[in-house]
Specification:
By secondary structure, this protein is an alpha+beta fold. It is built from 6 helices and 4 strands; from the N terminus they run E-E-H-H-E-E-H-H-H-H. Helices cover 23% and strands 13% of the residues. The longest helix is centred in the middle third of the chain and has 6 residues.
Amino acid sequence: TPTPPVPTIPTAPVSAPTTDTSCSDSTLRFRTMNGLGTKVVWRDCTWVNNKPYRCNNEGIISHCPVTCNGCDTCQDSEARFKLVKDGRRIARNCDWVATKKTAIRCGYEGVAETCRDTCDACTEEDEGRDNNIFE
């Protein structure tokens, strides 16, 4: 006797993970003020995501564009951030990345996602939108 066919369960297609850095939150911690405005503290985009009103703090949208719906332009983070260089954690900003040895500095972990414009991590579509709201 023939065996009946075994039914197959359809599965949803799985999309490949993207490596697009044109718009992603920085993985680096950034400098901001505590809730009282009396002390400098270092936070990350997960901290911002916990209370979205934090996107209103200066420099946060450019550092956490996905969390703060700021993906309409390709720009560098305005915040000062911490990165690891030569085994030491140092505080810098995207102006420092652009000053010299930019290709090397963009290679430090998290810097290309943080300084997207300086590190040429923007797509053509992003660059076409860069700060040009009248098109």
